[in-house]
Write a structure and sequence with these properties.
- The chain has 18 helices and no strands.
- It is globular.
- By secondary structure, the protein is mostly helical.
Amino acid sequence: MAGRRALGRRFGWLWAAFAVSSYGTGLGFGALPLLAVLVLHCGPAQVAALAATGRAVGALVAVPLGPWVEFRRKRPVMVAMDLIRCAALLSVAAAFALGRLGFAQLLLVSVVTAAADIAFKAAGGAYLKALMPPADLLVANSRFESTTWTSTMVGPPLGGAAIGLFGPVTTVVADAVSYLLSALGIRAIGGTEPVPERSGAARLRAGDLLAGWRHILGHAALRPLFLNSIVVNGLIMASQPLLAVLMLGRLGFAPWQYGLAFAAPCVGGLLGSRLAHPLAARFGPHRVLRASGALRSCWPLGLAFVQPGVPGLTIVLVVQLGVVTGCGVFNPLLATSRLDHTAPDRVARTLAAWSISSSAAIAAVTALWGLLAAATGPRTAIAAAGALLLATPLLLPRRAHTSRDEPAGTGVRAAVDRV
């Protein structure tokens, strides 16, 4: 099968580094909010502020990082971002051990890790485009996607068990170590990487900060994908804390049931990521992109009808399975399309702009939906998000576009033609 073909030793090291950091992130899922609750005894407002402010301010801090990453060798940037995240998380463990941990430190660490995550993804996407031939990009992105869903399925339950056995800072240390191992894996890739040449001024200019957004919004294929992703991600993520309040509060679900409702359906993401390449080969990448984009948006309205007991848990499991299966197919096609439609000298800025916008939108929509839930109740707010999601397929591109930056037959199309 095309999805099983060898992609080379260097990709193997890159994938291994991605896998170890993904599993570390899965183990440490929700670790900072958990410390805020269990150790600092913070209330809901502070926990919400930790989640929203860290993401929003981290995105703001990352704005100049896209142009900065663009004109530097990508592997050293990736290693540096891994080490920064490792050091930031270890500082939390050290402060906890010394009895000096405070809310301000958790907030600072969440900002630093969010900004470093954006820079790492920008450098990683640019490096992947330079490393892999266009025909292998979809297979590579599918393997990353399958790893993400596997770590999401396995990591949080194991992390919860580790916290119960060894204490609340255990998963923070595990996440920090995973970034260190990721840095070592990226260093082990080897090979030479030329320094990108910069045309024009040698220093960073104000216009460089907006270059990624100009490319996205000026591109006929990327603009609708960007708008769709921003809206869908914002509405789906905004519903998650409201569903937690509804299930764990009013409906009386146990924490393990809530965890199961989100961990078990991740098998759909694993399945979807494995199907992305063969489905694109059979039906065409654009048709599969549109279908999977619609699929991930048509389910969440069902969460507004969750009831107590087994029937309610079944509804959540079915809805989440539908959402993550659609995401598992859609995400590698989206990632490959972004690389296919972006020239090598602007990949980092484009991916950074995309991530910054996504983080800012999620923070803003989450805060707005929190206010809506306070005024109308969580069930009504969840229903409103689900209803709006039904309209988001209209934002998807209606027809396939040939890249303006690379010859026809690259990227997704080349991967299909090669089968």
